[in-house]
Design a protein that fits this description.
The structure is a homodimer of 339-residue chains. Chain A is an alpha+beta fold and 339 residues long. The first copy, chain A, has eleven helices and twelve strands. In chain A, the strands form three sheets. Chain A has a seven-stranded mixed beta sheet, sandwiched between helices. In chain A, strands 9-8-10 form a three-stranded antiparallel beta sheet. A two-stranded antiparallel ribbon of chain A has the order 1-12. Chains A and B meet through β4, β7, α8 and α9 of A and β4, β7, α8 and α9 of B.
Chain lengths: 339, 339
């Protein structure tokens, strides 16, 4: 059974769940916002459905709250930040603001994060940096589930990356995994007893499969073969290797949240103000947006969208009509809030 | 008819061609090296076949030599560099060294380049920065040829990006266009009278086509649909919008070299020494390389390769056996060298 819940109601419920488990109000607020925003944008797999797992992580002590930022190096433009195993969205929001603030001085600045828990949907942070007037680049490595190109074995995570920038008509942002699809879509097909399209996954011998069970026993495929495989490799490098945590199969804590997170995150901010001025930049960015939007749609397409536009259109609908959620999940969250 | 020419012989011939057209020896050397390296790695479309067009650009005055670096802003970590319409590889090599040198101090540094001509194969620069001990990220925007996802119209270029890093066993690097294939592969099919695979391109109405003529009248497709489309969008942002030049359909000078280049390039260097030390970083990067190489190959694959390995294996063969080239092209290059 499915119910519909209003955005604000869902956000407050999520906040109460976190607060009931010892998370201070400000940290509960930002964490809830990141999760509910994922639902609002149609990325339900990254939304409040994850809360029970996060609460398991908090209850087991693997995820901590009361984040106290601690830089591990002495470099104002490339900061190595210890997340203290704290809630990912809390650490990530701090990292975004820090990267943007330092980019104001240095033109480009980076925050390399170790020991933060799952940071949720990356598009949130790309948009945040874009709203601050910067180009934002964010990536995170995750538990393995994706076979390198030509391999039968899970090595990479779905290793997502996001990029955003300001334009005259507001932020534009891309948020993508480097796999063809998210693991959640295969799980949904499995539950529905449906086949998956060819090209999503391989079985445990590395052969193409349309059977979701074999796919889950095997591995997801990287998007675009060697291209997605290479991008996924370098997300592991930029996040896990650079922050000095784990890479490839060693990454823990993004799926099973009772394990301490051993992945890394990277936040890069570029301030166009230092390269000829923000006005010129946003004008050119808008010009590209206009070119894309005004281009002739392919037969069968209504409109040509810019990155992030699909999600933001989706968000408008859900802000008006509410967020559809399984009734069981709402009950479970209310129980977790002690209601 | 095809001949085979030794790497060093080709490099010297190319150098003589550029010098005969007024390019000083050092600039002719690096330009030739970037082009011949593309041939050596199997990217013939980015190799010496381009020299006649580059010479057209030099002869017409659109491409200049004797590059004098001129920073357009006052920011040591985010440098805005005027390429003075000079030879792309000369400007790009300088930008790489500058980014690396500044990253030694700042941890991360960026060079945003305007007014450089075509910089050739990006993997060359990713490898160069990796050999200097840095993570290198390079991108460039190019003349339009790719339809945004859902569009029937060319807006983006093939907008390539490259990333490289050091490991204990040498540099690893990814060099990819954000389209499914390079335009050159469609031209080759057209010449051979062969069909192209579905998924490469659309006709001028935006419908899938396997006819190379219709594909060239239409547009190439971005890799992975909205993902490659989003990456291509942000290559235009990071290169054209940030450097204050042109974006999307306005980009000139990468295909028709007699037109002054209006694209931009970006070079980002990250020095892992500032984030916990280079030894720890290269150890983790090597660990990821080992995980990929030691993973079980999919049925039908011999070995699982890391990014750039295919190219470097190819290079070994061509260093031993020489570079196969059309005899006509060799004659044309000799004529251009006045021989």
């Amino acid at each position: 059974m499915e119910s519909t819940i209003a955005y604000e109601e869902m956000r407050q419920l999520a906040t109460r769940v976190f607060m009931r488990h010892g998370v201070p109000a400000d940290e509960a607020n930002i964490t809830s916002e990141v999760l509910v925003e994922a639902n609002a944008r149609g990325h339900d797999s990254h939304g409040v459905i994850r809360i029970p797992k996060w609460i398991e992580g908090i209850s087991s002590g693997a995820i901590k709250s009361r984040f106290l930022p601690r830089a591990l190096n002495d470099c104002s433009s490339a900061i190595w930040l210890d997340g203290g195993q704290c809630l990912g969205p809390v650490v990530a929001e701090y990292a975004c603001h820090l990267a943007v603030r330092q980019a104001r001085d240095y033109g480009i600045a980076m925050v390399s994060v170790k020991n933060a828990s799952h940071i949720g949907m990356l598009g949130f942070y790309a948009e945040l940096m874009a709203r601050s007037g910067c180009i934002g680049i964010i990536a995170t490595n995750t538990e393995s589930g994706v076979a390198p190109h030509g391999s039968a074995e899970k090595v990479f995570g779905t290793n997502p990356l996001a990029i955003g920038c300001p334009t005259l008509s507001g932020p534009v942002f891309l948020d993508m995994s480097t796999s063809v699809v998210a693991r959640g879509k295969v799980v949904l097909a499995q539950r529905a007893g449906a086949a998956i399209p060819e090209g999503w996954a391989v079985d445990s011998r590395g052969q193409p499969t349309t059977d979701p069970n074999q796919a889950l026993a095997g591995a997801l495929l990287p998007v675009g073969g060697p291209k997605g495989s290479g991008l996924s490799f370098f997300v592991d490098i930029l996040c896990g290797a650079l922050s000095g945590t784990a890479v490839g199969k060693d990454v823990r804590g993004t799926f099973d949240m009772r394990q301490s997170g051993s992945k890394g995150d990277i936040f890069i901010a570029i301030d166009p103000e230092k390269i000829g001025g923000i006005d010129r930049f946003t004008g050119l960015a808008q010009h590209l947006v206009d070119q894309v939007r005004q281009s002739t749609p392919a037969v069968g397409c209504d409109r040509v969208l810019v990155p992030g536009e699909y999600e933001m259109n989706f968000r408008k609908q859900r802000m008006e009509n509410g967020i559809p959620l399984a009734s069981d999940l709402i009950s479970e969250l209310k129980a977790l809030a002690g209601e």
